[in-house]
Write a structure and sequence with these properties.
Elements (H helix, E strand, L loop, with lengths): L1 E6 L3 E12 L2 E14 L4 H17 L6 H14 L5 H33 L7 H29 L13 H7 L4 H10 L4 H21 L1
Antiparallel strand pairs: 1-2, 2-3
Length: 213
Amino acid sequence: MFVRFRQQPNKLQVSLVKSNWNGGKLKQEHIAGLGSVPLEPTVPDRARFWKKLFEKLSALSNRIDQEMHGKILDSISKRIPVVTEEELRAYLLEYYDHEKVFWEAMECRNDIMGADYTLKTGMVMQKAVDAQDAMRRAMSQTIMLQEKIERISRGELPPELPVESDTNKLLADSGISKRQDVRWRKRASMTVEEYVADRKRALQKLIKAMEVW
């Protein structure tokens, strides 16, 4: 048996093949598909590939002995390297830091929306309550992500890779329109600290306006 790598336009496909002589001709028998990765795989791509690979090889244990198992892993690792602990830690820190920035922005956005809605008539007061609830949920997410970043920085790694957030759905669920998001994203060209400080200043102006009103 040997590992076959087949490059397609957007991915590298891996399979296990066995050569057999049949009628004086050498023929190749497809044993199993071992998965695929993009041509330039990210850390999550490689991590998920290797997790599924071990599961597939385990299912083939009745056909693969220990020596062949080692040869397969060695062959694949030369084309698709196993994710190191250092790579995983760096990826998780970057991922959770990105998530934390998003939820910090969500916290500020919903806080501002809540203050804005309180300036409206009683018919929309529920929106103000909803926005404040969303702001508190975003704050909880920010705190949780910061705790994860700190644990990873201390060397603790989670058992599973995170499931990436659907930020478009999260924005929609919070009642944030595409136009609002575009406007806020323009302001996001600032650093995170500048952006959060700018949003807090805007909130203070709204609160002052509400006091006058």
